[in-house]
Design goal:
alpha+beta, 1 helix
Length: about 60
C-alpha cells in the first residue's frame, strides 16, 4: 500500500472517512473527507463539489 506522503510514488490506494450532513430539512447536503494517510480534511458545500474534487483527483493521478 502506498501512502499519500511521497508525491514521487504512484498512488494505488487511498482511504477517506466521508461525512455527509444537512443543516436542516430543506438544506443542501454538505460533505467532508478525512484522508486517513495524511490527516488532511477537505470540506464541500455540496455533493456536486465533492464529486468534482474526486474526479479532479482521479485525473491528477492519471487514472481517467
Amino acid at each position: 500500500m502506498t501512502k499519500d506522503k511521497n508525491p514521487e510514488q504512484e498512488i494505488y490506494y487511498r482511504s477517506y472517512l466521508l461525512r455527509l450532513w444537512r443543516d436542516g430539512a430543506r438544506a443542501s447536503w454538505r460533505a467532508s473527507l478525512h484522508c486517513t494517510a495524511t490527516d488532511e480534511q477537505f470540506g464541500f458545500r455540496s455533493i456536486a463539489d465533492l464529486v468534482d474534487y474526486l474526479q479532479a483527483l482521479e485525473k491528477k493521478t492519471g487514472n481517467e
